[in-house]
Specification:
Blueprint: H1 4-20, E1 23-28, E2 36-40, E3 45-48, H2 50-53, E4 61-68, E5 74-83, E6 88-96, E7 99-104, E8 113-114, E9 128-135, E10 144-152, H3 159-167, H4 176-195, E11 199-200, E12 206-210, E13 219-225, E14 231-238, H5 249-257, E15 261-263, E16 266-268, H6 273-279, E17 287-297, E18 303-320, H7 321-328, H8 335-339, H9 344-364, E19 373-378, E20 384-390, H10 394-417, E21 423-425, H11 434-444, H12 458-467, H13 475-480, E22 487-489, H14 513-526, H15 536-565, E23 572-581, E24 584-589, E25 595-599, E26 608-610, E27 615-617, E28 622-624, E29 628-637, E30 642-647
Parallel strand pairs: 11-18, 12-18, 25-30
Antiparallel strand pairs: 1-2, 1-4, 2-3, 4-5, 6-7, 6-9, 7-8, 9-10, 13-14, 14-17, 15-16, 17-18, 19-20, 21-22, 23-24, 23-29, 24-25, 26-27, 27-28, 29-30
Helix pairs in contact: 3-15, 9-10
Length: 649
């Protein structure tokens, strides 16, 4: 046994050796494998062996030294934990004999974490829970956790919704300060609306068109033909900025939420329902405050002039997309013609305006492809009872055209009046894919100037060329997969995906905080007041908030979709190829809009992937985007929540 002097000498030797090592700060890369990698602060990626990987979590900040193995390959050895971002997380309780673990739902983390019996808080095997790390694995390689709260058991109704809400920290309750402000608004709302000094447009036959279940109606429409030709189109947008003061409790909470979240059959609103469903909603028969965008539209569909102003409006009818589509499509015994004959001329004028606007956009901008949408019918347990497939209806296209026209008019107004606002820009083809896209377009459209693709407006030019040219390859789909995402910006910029010189949105201020902020800017400009400052940090917050909302909705939907498909294993469906990669194809079932992967790696002859044309072929079979194929559901992986498909000969 070593004496104290020897131990002290050994300790000093270790410290001396450590001081002589070159130590690097690094971040653990997210990996589902047992071994992994770290990314040094200088950008180098270094292998992290399995025994070292057991000491850390993904994204941990650590100090490492670099070593060389017997084959001369660099690997990292952990010296110290700097910081760990993994504190609380959600997951599912797993029982193994007398031991209890939690399987974390964290990125690609693929390890169970031990929970001591006295830290279970009543949770049982199978329960979905929220946990907290109590022992990091840096020293022993064995992490521990405790249960903070029990979300529910898999058999509970709407457990998928409740779990994802907890996982992403979506707020269902309103702080007391927010409730107090709402009560104060309710107490004086009618008097404030009555006394508001605004243009009175309550005599016009406004109407709203939304889904049957919609309560937060933030836009109303009116259109009429002009004697000199063309139309006068008015779009009234609800004005929550009148009720919500900047930096108030309501404003702070709305900014924190950033957007309403739409889960299947459940909405988590940005604003309390008393506002979103009542005082800010353009409910029929009630006078409400709004910002009106008034546009003169030529017979060719060009918005030749536009004006924004504050007004009072009163909707005469709350109509559904289905009901308006039935009327416009000539369905007999439609409810609109029977119940609201006085507003039929307005609907007719709106359809004429939509036709003209869409034709103009087709010629001068970029129109959306009319791909099918899918909506879920849920049972009392929150499971999918049926999935309904439909293309955008006549009424959907009508409302969409009016909203886009109003948003473009708002963008023009802001660009003319102020140097800073909130715009939505889209830069076009991704820089790392630009050379490939140019090469592909040059091969398929030899007369097209591919240098145009280096500019945002190049995508618009490409789409116009494709509208007048027939090619055997789904070029539009291929290029659309290579586009950047749209982003918020403080200055107006080209929106490549829509083909507009500048674009913004102000038509959903009840549902999106960026639209609410734009209302404040527009009102300040109309009243010649100082303009609210918009910081870049706010744009980053809004981008992150909207991304979280999308992720939350997608996760619930994917979970429910996989459950829906569990009893359809071995059944055959038609599907459309939506992605091709070196390993196989991702196909979307035409009936349900559910994606599944067809693994082609074991097929003979071997498939060769062409990244330029995004297709794969083995000489006997070829698969490309938008191709229709027949597939069989071979398995449903509920753990990873994905679908596995096989080809049907």
């Amino acid at each position: 046994m070593l004496n104290n002097d020897a131990l002290q000498q050994l300790k000093q030797l270790k410290q001396q050796l450590k001081s002589q090592k070159e130590i690097f700060n690094a971040t653990v890369k997210d990996s589902g494998a047992k071994s992994g990698q770290v990314i040094l602060d200088d950008g180098r990626q270094i292998f992290l062996p399995q025994e070292e990987m057991q000491k850390v979590f993904p994204h941990d900040r650590i100090k490492v030294t670099l070593c060389v193995d017997s084959k001369g390959q660099d690997f990292a050895e952990i010296e110290e934990l700097i910081d760990s971002s993994l504190s609380e997380f959600t997951g599912q309780i797993i029982g193994r004999g007398k031991a209890v673990f939690v399987e974390p739902d964290v990125g690609r983390l693929s390890r169970w974490i031990f929970i001591p019996p006295h830290k279970l808080s009543g949770a049982k095997a199978g329960d979905f829970v929220r946990c907290r790390i109590t022992q990091h694995p840096i020293n022993s390689g064995k992490p521990k956790a405790e249960v903070v709260s029990i979300i529910g058991h898999p058999d509970q109704p709407y457990i998928e919704h409740n779990y994802i809400i907890d996982k992403h920290g979506l707020d269902l309750a309103w702080p007391e300060a927010v409730q107090a402000e709402v009560e104060a608004i309710e107490a004086q709302a009618e008097a404030l609306i009555s006394s508001a000094d605004r243009k009175d447009m309550t005599d016009l036959p406004w109407l709203t068109i939304d889904a049957e279940s919609t309560q937060d109606m933030d836009d109303a429409l009116f259109a009429e033909a002009l004697a000199e030709g063309g139309w006068l189109l008015r779009v009234a947008i609800a004005d929550p900025a009148f009720w919500i003061n900047p930096e108030s409790a309501l404003d702070v909470e709305a900014r924190k939420r950033s957007t309403s979240v739409y889960l299947p059959k459940q909405t988590i609103p940005m604003l309390p329902e008393s506002l979103s469903h009542n005082w800010c909603s353009l409910v029929p028969g009630e006078t409400r405050l709004a910002i009106v965008c008034e546009m003169k539209v030529s017979e060719q569909g060009e918005v030749v002039s536009s004006e924004l102003y504050q007004a009072k409006v009163r909707s005469q009818a709350k109509l559904s997309y289905d009901a308006v589509s039935n009327y416009l499509d000539g369905v007999e015994e439609n409810s609109v013609a029977a119940a609201n004959p006085e507003i039929l001329p307005v609907i007719d004028s709106l359809q004429q305006v939509q036709g003209a606007l869409s034709a103009y956009r087709e010629q001068h901008a970029v129109c959306f492809e009319n791909r099918p949408d899918y909506y879920f019918e849920l049972d009392e347990h929150g499971k999918i009872a049926a999935i309904h497939r439909q293309h955008r209806s006549t009424a959907n296209r009508l409302v969409e055209a009016c909203m886009i026209a109003a948003n473009c008019a708002a963008a023009e107004f802001l660009a003319e009046k102020t140097s800073k606002a909130i715009y939505i820009s889209h830069s076009g083809v991704r820089s790392d894919r630009l050379d490939d896209v140019k090469k592909l377009v040059a091969e398929l459209l030899p007369d097209f100037d591919t240098e145009a693709l280096s500019k945002p407006e190049g995508y618009r030019q490409l789409i116009h060329s494709l509208n007048n040219t027939s090619v055997d390859v789904p070029l539009r789909t291929i290029v659309s997969r290579q586009l950047e995402r749209s982003l918020f910006s403080l200055e107006p910029g080209f929106h490549s995906g829509m083909g507009f010189e500048r674009y913004t949105t102000f038509t959903s201020p009840i549902r999106k905080y960026n639209d609410l902020v734009l209302h404040r800017i527009i009102i300040a400009l109309l009243e010649e007041q100082s303009i609210p400052e918009v910081a870049v940090s706010l744009l980053d917050e809004l981008q992150a908030g909207q991304q979280k909302a999308r992720f939350s909705a997608n996760e619930v939907e994917q979970w429910l979709k996989c459950q829906f498909m569990e009893d359809k294993v071995e059944q055959t469906f038609t599907a459309t190829v939506v992605q091709v990669n070196p390993f196989g194809v991702l196909a979307r079932l035409d009936d349900f809009g559910i994606d599944g992967f067809v693994d082609l790696r074991r097929k003979e002859p071997k498939f060769a992937y062409d990244p330029l044309y995004q297709q794969t072929s083995n000489g006997e079979q070829q698969f490309m985007l938008d191709q229709s194929i027949e597939v069989k559901v071979s398995a449903v992986d509920m753990k990873r929540r994905n679908l596995k498909l096989t080809l049907v000969s």
